[in-house]
Amino acid sequence: MKRAVILLLTALILFTACGSSVNFNVQYIRADISWREDYFIEYEAVVTSRDELEQYSADMWHDYVPDVFSEAVEKYTDEFFKTGYLFIFYRAEGSGSVKHKVTKISEDGEITIERTSPQEQTADIAEWHIVIELGNDFKPGEFNVKFTGIN
């Protein structure tokens, strides 16, 4: 009986660890389009300092950083980066109607993002910067973004 309880508890712990998720906060920043050849790429960045965040902005927009992005990330000061960091995922969508929602981040670094859209879409193109706030106590070897919903 004791052995069965130990095996059951061990299995429960392993099952829980495999499915456990990480605490996070997220911002979805939609920026106006600035046309470039690499527009439809997906890009991800791990940002661990204010200087790296400013470099990300410079790399994405070169001379002009949209106000909507600057205003959304101004709260990430040196003080924030003492205890946390950002994972930023960039994706361009062929319609501004497509929306995103980070539904889970697992202990192994897999980020699940649900994509949704109404049946009728707008004809505008949207740049999305999905900014995920994570604590310094969570550092997977790598991140893997997985989409659910529409493809």
Number of domains: 1
Structural category is alpha+beta
DSSP, total strands? 7
Distance between the termini: 49 Å
Strand content: 35-45%
Shape by Cα distribution: globular
How can the largest sheet be summarized? 4 strands, antiparallel
Helix content: 25-40%
User: SSE order, as H and E?
Assistant: HEEHHHEEEEE
DSSP summary: helix tally: 4
List the strand order in the largest sheet. Answer: 1-6-3-2
* Average pLDDT score: 81
Nearest-angstrom radius of gyration? 19 Å
Low-confidence stretches: 2-19
What is the gist of this entry?
The chain is an alpha+beta fold and 151 residues long. It has one domain.
Task: Explain what you see.
The chain is α+β, with helices and mostly antiparallel strands and 151 residues long. It has one domain (21-149). It contains four helices and seven strands, in the order αββαααβββββ. It has a four-stranded antiparallel beta sheet with strand order 1-6-3-2. It is globular and about 45 Å long. Mean pLDDT is 81; it is low at 2-19.
